[in-house]
Amino acid sequence: MHLWRHLERCGPFKTSSQQTLIQSSATNTSDTLWTFLQKASRELLTKLIIADERPFTLVKHPIFKQLIASLQPKFKLHGRTTLKKDVMDMHQEMKSTVSREIAEANRISLTTDLWTSSNQTPFMVISAHFISADWTLNKQIISFKMLPPPHTGLAIADQLLASIMEWKILDKVMSITVDNASSNTLQKGLYRLQPPATNVTSVAATDLAAGGCNRYNPFGGDNVAIAQVLSILRDKSHLPPHLDGKFFHVRCAAHIINLVVKDGLKTLSPAITKIRNSVRHIKASPLRKHQFKEMIESNNIKQQALPSVDVPTCWNSTYLMLKSALPYRDAFNSLSIHDSSYHDLPTYDEWEEIILMKDFLSLFNTATLKLGMTRHPSAHMLYSNMTSIDKLLKESLKSSALNIPGIVEPMQEKFDKYWKNMETFAGINLVFDPRYKLAMVEFLLADELGSSKSAITGRVDKIKEDIKMWFKDVAKGKQDKKSTSTNATTSIPQSKPLKSDQDARFKEFLAGKTMSSATSATAEIDLYLQEPTVPLDTQGFDILKWWSVNSLRFPTLSILARNTLTIPMTSIASELAFSTGGRVLSDSRNQLKPVTLEALICTQDWINTNDGLDQISTGELAEDEDSE
């Protein structure tokens, strides 16, 4: 009876268009309430298409439709046209967010890189690097555009300036990091750049064409155009007049390392080819692999993984091949005796050359990984990594081993050409690491110059003087900004004229004293340098966190640190830095319109950053597939 009365009083249950269920996760013992939302699921599908580089036609695939229906029958799967619209909408929404973040940044450093499609169409990618107010380093792709023919430096220069204007960062650009190939092309193009008739870059281009040619060029004769871009930004960006030349044009360290490695590998090409052919030989058939394992056992070699075959366009894979082959040197020697079909055994001298190159590549590999980080500062690591390379090269030049000096000499020449223009810049960056400061500079110079105290002192003093000059520029800029702000907000009409100009002159006197105090480089800099360095064994040391905590103690110096640590040392991420083949677009994206392609590339980068997907490499994602 009670049940019947209940049914009479209560109406029928109304179903909701939103599905609610209680789900229990294996990792979460507490039950959680989950509600299906069409909009949220639609956004996740859009993110998947963008982040994983899936084609728009995926939504038409029968198996994909079945999968979605099995997971959530209520989900309405739209067609490719609607999906494309969702992609463009997400791009615009995220672009607005990135634009606000960039607008709040004090200084921005740019990197440029060239990609190609499968039909050899070149694209230019521009990334912005900046440290936010909470001292977090950010990297965002802000432009991905096809280079119009002819593919000259003029096109590169025009596109770079157009992107700077589009994102309204003309007054924020601190530096541009480019590889040598792009730099050389860019220099020629910017030198010829003329103001377009109607273009957002017309103001900058006019300034460049009219005023840049006769200005002081801090980069030397081969870099005239880069200096001209600097002349545009110097007026708009308020770059420090003393140091902007040293900081503005940064050569990609990974590209320089690639050039040095290329010279070494070219000289050792016969020996490396023999190792490559040897590895291919033992992996050509199960029988050969079994025979090689017998050689390993007969030579009492502790077997690990068999040597790996390299990808010639990725020199780090060549390094891994040499490293994995060297422990089996005796096994290869034995194989040459027992296997008449094996003809690629390296000679004794070639084995010695390979040992040397393995040591070189190990150091270059470590340096490239450290300097290619995009989510952590790398500027303060340039000096120590490059001096380590320089030391190894110079020590090898003195080697008595056959052919070693001949191999190293072109590598040293290539390295010196780059390093001589970057050493002071790198030394300044190193000083802003509180674990090292000037002490590490002195230590490394002593390692290089020996007991020549005068030479060491001279170079250390030069670095310190540059920092002080930069400090004064920044302090003056802060004071000018403060004065402008004060004048703008405290302008009150005077009811009576001043009895004399004494008060006005006294204000100028006080402003001069304030300026003198603000620009005193010795107080704040010397305090920082005189304090003990942070212990090297400090676990989990975070250089940005250290400057964030100490920014109140070093208000002006922390601005310098923020600007310095923003500058990337490579124009590409470390996972791409080893390749000499460049970045190639997938076939599915190669067919898209340029505006759609830019939306996909930029938004993919922003999604990966926000969701932490940039910390997962492609190799990690494919690891399970390879292991099965």
From TrEMBL:
One of its GO terms (cellular component) is nucleus. GO terms for molecular function: DNA binding; protein dimerization activity; zinc ion binding. Residues 484-494 have a biased composition (Polar residues). Pfam families: Dimer_Tnp_hAT, hAT-like_RNase-H. Keywords: DNA-binding, Metal-binding, Nucleus, Zinc, Zinc-finger. The keyword Nucleus applies. It comes from the Eukaryota. This is HAT C-terminal dimerisation domain-containing protein. It comes from Puccinia coronata f. sp. avenae.
